[in-house]
Write a structure and sequence with these properties.
This protein is mainly α. Helices cover 75% and strands 0% of the residues. The protein has one domain. It has three helices and no strands.
Length: 92
């Protein structure tokens, strides 16, 4: 169980960091928020993969397609986050 939690955190950090590198502009996110971005992106990427391909991850947790899906999901979540957070800031 501890190994699963650690692998989720590591994959979340990698996916979140890659998403922050791929999305242009400045994102004011801390390291824990980057990990959370990657974890949420993993869920979004897994859900989209299930919708598109109709299969679950029966081959295991860590696989290249899962990491790529996590990065794509994290990019989608980060783009939504920057658009929503950009509207809430007060412009003087």
């Amino acid at each position: 169980m501890l190994g699963l939690i650690l692998s989720i955190i590591v994959v979340g950090l990698i996916a979140g960091a890659l998403a922050r590198l791929l999305v242009p502009g400045r994102q004011d996110l801390s390291i824990p928020m980057t990990i959370l971005l990657g974890i949420i992106g993993s869920f979004v990427g897994g859900f989209l993969g299930y919708l598109i391909f109709g299969r679950d991850s029966g081959s295991g947790f860590l696989q290249p397609a899962g990491i790529i899906g996590s990065v794509i999901g994290a990019v989608i979540v980060l783009l939504i986050w920057t658009r929503v957070a950009g509207r809430r800031t007060a412009r003087v």
